[in-house]
Amino acid sequence: MVSFPDEYPLQVFSLEIPEDQDLPSIMGRHVCKASEEWVQAKHATNELMGKVELLFRPFLRWLDRNLEKLFTEGARLLKRDIEAERSGIEFVPYEQLKVTSPSSTERTADPSESCGEEDSDADSHSDCEGEQEESCGADGPSSGVDGDGEATSHCVENVKSTEPRKGTEVKLMGLHLGEGTATVVASRITVSLQCSRCKITADLTMARDHPYTAQCEKCSAHISATFRPSMLHHYSAVLGYLDLSAAVPVDLVLQDCELVVGCLSCSKEEPLQNVLYGQNKEFNCLHCHSKLSILVETTRFQYLQPRSRNERGDKGSLQQRPKFYRDPAVQPGKPLPQKGTCRHYKQSYRWLRFPCCGRAYPCDTCHDEDQNHEMELATRMICGYCAKEQPYTSGKPCISCGSMVTRGPHSSHWEGGQGCRNKIKMCRNDRQKYANTGKTVSRKSASQQK
Fold it and tell me: Phi/psi class of residue 416: alpha, beta or left (left: φ > 0; alpha: ψ in -120 to 50)?
C-alpha cells in the first residue's frame, strides 16, 4: 500500500504492507524498511542537487530489479528467527532498546547513587545491578544507570571483537556462504609479500598467531609477519589481520590456504582446501552430510592506521614523529605495478590468475619462470588500470573501468587485408605502405580522377 502526501513530490511517499497478507510479517517489515531507505536516500540526493523528481516510477524500477534480493534477505531473517526460537533465543531490535533507554535514564537523579543502592526487589534485578556496578567501576559514574533496559543496551553497545582491528585487514570480497555453512576460520594462509626496499615479490606461508621472520633474496632485508585470524560468517567477510614489517601484501593465494568450516546443522568442523577465486566450492559435511558451499570473488588488503595517543585520550603524552606507512601493492581502484605489464608483453595491461597454482602473473612466461609445474590456461584476470578481478576475456574492455587491457584485434600491419588498411597509420616496415606509390599513371586516368 502506497500513500502519497498532499505535497508530493516535495515530500516522499510511504510504503506499507498490510499484516493480513500471506507474507510473513518479518519479511514485510524488511521490504518496507529497505524501500523507505532507498526513497529517503534518493530524496536527500535530489535536495542536495536542488531538483524535484517524481520518485514513484524510479522506485518501481528499483523494486523490480531488487525484489528477489529483498525476499531472499527476508527469508533469511525469518529462518534465523525460527531457529533462534527453537533454541530459546530472542532477538531484540536495537530500535526497541533505544526507545526504552530514555525512560530509564529519566528515573535516575544521580547515576553514581544507582550503583551502590539496594532495592527491595534485589532478587529480580541482581544480575543487572551486578553488571552496572562493574561498568561504574570501569567507566566512572556516567556509565552506571538503574533499570533493566539501560543495562541491556549497555551490554549490546559494548560488544567488542576478540581480535583488535590493527595492522593490514584481509577481506574476502564477494564472499557467499551456503545456507548450511556457519563459520569459516583460516588455520594456515599463503600470502605474496613485496619487499618495501627492492620490490621483490615472494610467497610466505603462515600459521595462525605465530610470528615469522624471513630475509629478502635480493637486498637481504629482514621481514617479519604475523597472521591473526578472524571468524568468517554471513555478516563478516574479514579473514584476519596481518602484522607486517618491511613488506606489503600483494595477493592471497587462496588455493594454498587451509580453512576450517563449521557446519550449521551438526555444529561440527572440518578442514577445507583448494578454494579457487570465482568458483563455487561445494562439498558435503563429513558428519551429517549436509551440503556446504563457499564462493570468493577476490581479496582486498587495507591498512588500518593506528590511533595516536592524543586520540586515545592520553594527556601529557609527548608528540611523536608521525610514521609513514606504505599502502598494499594491489588496491581496488588503483593501477597495478607498472599497470600490469612485464618485460615480455609491453601492451598487456593485466595480470592473469592461473588455476594450476592459484597465483597471478603478468603472462604465461612469467609463470613458467617462477613455477616448476605445467601451466594451465588462465580463467581469471586482474585489470591493470583499476585492479578489478574478473573472468578472463579477450579483446573486451574491463567490466569496471572500461579500459582495454590489451591492444585491439588488428595491428598496424596489413595482415592480408584484415588489419590496418590506412596507409597513413600503417607501420613503415610493412611493404603495403608504399605499394603502388611509384606507378605510372596516364594523363587520361589522371584527368578522370580530378
Answer: left
